[in-house]
Amino acid sequence: SGAIADAVPMQAQDTHTLETWFLALSTNLTATLTEYGATLPHRPTPAPHGEAGWNSWYELWDTVDAEAVLANAEIAVRAFANKLPSTTAKLRIVVDDGWQREWGIWHANEKFPQGMEELAATLGTQGYLPGIWLAPLLVSAETELARDNPDWFLGDADYFQLKHGQLKILDVTHPEAAAHLRETIQRIVGWGYSLLKIDFLFAGTFPGQRHQPMTTMAAYKRALEIIREAAGPSVHLLAVGAPPLAGFQFVDSWRVGPDVADENFGASWYFVQGTARTIAGRWPYCLRTLCDGDPPILRDFTAIQAQVSAWVAALAGGAFFLSDDLRGLTNDRLDWIVEPMVRLGTNGRPAHPFDQVPAEVPTSLVTQLGDQLAQKTRHQIPALWVLPDGEQITLSLT
After folding, report:
1. Which of 159, 186, 196, 377 is a good FRET partner for 108, with 20 to 30 A between their CA atoms?
2. pTM higher than the cut 0.90
């Protein structure tokens, strides 16, 4: 695997070990995909089930502050009351993008005046499990860190983010850049965060000039090795914006699909459909790592839309989080979340389509953003799904 222009200098007699291939000929596609999933890499001691809780991203966006986190945590307890399986002793509260000073400067900004360590301690005292978001491989080009250490970053390759501009990519093959990454992860874990939502990991696969020549996927593997070693074996690593398979042996869970809402559009039914389509195609991966289908959206949707959104999130089996600003929701909307959804969403195994092959092949590839712009549903999404216990569920996604 690797992007175009991925190249490594080789001398005569040099060898490189590449991917293992899985080849099968079968008339039962679901059985074959299940067999394929069983062969995939995974952590030596994988987490047996997913977690439930609240994530700050999908309404607060980067305006999140300490007060909002603590207030939403308190409401989340009421939202999940009598709905949690016995395997979920505590709710996970995740502070997403917006807490940091800048991308790459992973220290609390003015919206968290007591610091992130104090917030983690408060959440822990109140009975929650603290989690936090970061993009560990990206650093804003405008920071002193990037200007003072140009050799720490990938040559001839940057990542442009619409809101945050030009971002430099850490070259983890450089010893000092690797040490910086290790120190960053150790510091954040030391604050008391036992889940790290590590995002934009795909940047680690970009081709470019590295301190030590190697394939892009080998460099990506090294980055995740460093993060896992620094975090320690008991910290939950959730990989987001990450290629499948690569790195599964280092992470506990993997975001299986795209975002479920956009800051520019807000909550959108087209995004729910995109998530369902993605799970339908990627569920074999979820047999070897916990898959996070991203949160259901409760605001702005009708009751049916919100409940289907929740069932879609639950199909992945690896996490069930709320992400609206719960302070603005009425109790009846919180009641749309029911115990079977949460149980399915945290059971640790995915559902799969009853029929893997769509009845009608789309004329072109589509995305949830494309449907949003076209204001038209063009996805081909299975309606009938088989749950891990063999039961079936029909979802109306049109």
Report:
1. 159
2. yes
